[in-house]
Structures are given as C-alpha cells and as structure tokens.
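Margin note: ligand = iron/sulfur cluster.
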Amino acid sequence: MRDFIRRMEEKAIAGERLTYEEGCRLISASGPDILDLIASANRVRHHYWGDQVNLCSIVNAKSGNCSENCNFCSQSAYHDTGVPTYPLMDAPGLLKAAQEAGSNGAGAFGIVVAWWGLREGRELEAILQRIRELVAAGHTRTDASLGIIADRKIAFKLREAGLAYYNHNLETAQSHFPKICTTHTYDDRVRTIQYCKEAGIRICSGGIFGMGEVLEQRVELAVALQELDVDVVPLNFLHAIKGTPFEEIPPLRPMEILKIIAVYRLMLPSKDIMTAGGREVHLRDLQSWMFAAGASHTLIGNYLTTSGRKPEDDLKMIEDLNLRAVAYCGGTVQEAVEER
Ligand code: SF4
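Resulting structure:
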C-alpha cells in the first residue's frame, strides 16, 4: 500500500487525474497506512498551496421553513428541530455580519438561505441588491449559497451583481442522493453548477460524509467534482441533529475524517479543499491534523444553526503550524489583524 500511495502522490503532483479505482484503493487504507496517506496529502497540498490557508465565514441569511426534505438538515420544514425561522435578512444586517467576518480574518463571506432556490421575481431582486451592497462595501469577497437556480439568465444576473463564488454542494454521490433528498434531484444540483460556470461564477461544491454512504460512494462524489472542475471543495462531516431522520447516525471517527480529506486532496490535487461542518465536534484534539491531511481552507465562526469555535483559536492553530492565513485584502490575516 505504501508504494501505491507514493505513486498516487507523484501522479497528483504531476497534475494527473486519479481514477475511481485508484481512489477506491486509497480510501480502503487502514492502520498505519492512513498516516502514509496523510503524509502524501500534505506534500501534495504544499506543492499546490505552499503554506497558504484560506478562511471564509457564512451567515444564515434566511432561516428554517425550507420546502425541501434533506434528511440531514435542521432547517427543513419536514423536520421538527426547533431551529429559529426568520425571513431574508436586510442589507444592514448582512453588511454588519460581513464586516465582523472580515475582522475575524475571513477572506470570503457566504450568504446562505434555507429555501428551494432562485426564480425570477421579488426575492431574486432583493438578493441581487444585497449582493451589490456587500460587493460595494468590500469587507470580504462576496459568495452565496442560494439553492437551485431555475434559469441560466439568473446566474448571469448574479455575476453582474458582482458575485464571485457560488456554493452548491452535490451533498453526496449520485447513487446515494435519493437516500438524502427526494424533493429535488441530483441533476437539479448539477444543472445549477453548470449555469453558474457558464456565467463565469466560480464554484464551491462538495458534500457531507457520514450519511450512510459506503466508501466507494465517497470516491464517486470526488470523481463527479473532478468532472465538474469545481474550484473549492467543502468537506462536511454529519453533525446529527435531533429531530432529523439522521439523528441516530453514529459520528465518523477522526481518522476516517482525516482519510477522507487526504483522499480528496489526492483526487482534486490543485483544488481548494475546505473543512466545514462537523470538524470541531468530530475531530476534537485532532483538528490541526486537517491541514496535514490536505486541507487548504477552513470555515471560521459559526455554522448555520450550530456554533463553531472562536476564530482567534483557529488563527492561533494556523500560526502554530507555520501556515499563513491569507486575508481578502492580500497579505496575511495576522498582519491584517495587527494593523487594525
Ligand atoms: S435545500 Fe438546503 S436548507 Fe433546504 S432542506 Fe435542503 S439543505 Fe436544508
């Protein structure tokens, strides 16, 4: 296995795409081979990203009461989870949240909403206006996660408003998607990503692991993201919420999570591999290993309905690893924080 891992590392550094079969062999690594896998992923990360770490933050800009039935999600109207419900936040509220994200060190700020998606109409106009104001304020790069896009014209309007990146996770492998959601399809998600790419918007798309998928399906998702040529790949690890159909699913073990990060680094070697939801609750003391395992990006601050840890703790961890958190305005976050 060690020689195989080394060959895959060389292939990734040479920019060659690993196959589904090669990914399945890597993800079957166990015991001490996982540490070899992590070491290889670390070298691949360093080859493409050096000591750079990207940081972003999100805001729950419209909470709860979502028409979709994603089994992992606390904001679905199908699940009794007690999350707060509120309509789309106003521009001053979003500008304040973006400013706070920027001062915490986030290079990008993502507007996230709990609804099916975007169609022509009042809601779209409201979102476009808020994006224009956030871009004009320039606290951070402005990103968004606004659900399924009904028509490619809408993607071009988002681009014109100044949107840089669109987050739309495939969530899981196509073969596992019907077990996750039945109110919309995997193809709806792929089409939304394609519309955004046509409009020149960069793509942030990944998934949630630990939702009952098998190892091969974790690789199947990586291959789909290779084919869509996405830019940022968020890796979430199911944080089972009471009241959702997935509340009883046991959590992933830390070494399994680190293995997933490492395999994604090798299968998407030059991409911005990001750790997101579940990294605090499941990695615990092993959080700093996420960068050694190949992550080049992490989400700081709170999640949509659950808390993250203090951003300054993450900045300290990155500094302690001799890595550099890059600020939106260039330079490092440390310098940006010290200048303030
Ligand atoms: S579409 Fe988004 S907000 Fe709605 S249930 Fe699914 S994951 Fe949750």
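The CA atoms of residues 206 and 233 lie 5 Å apart.
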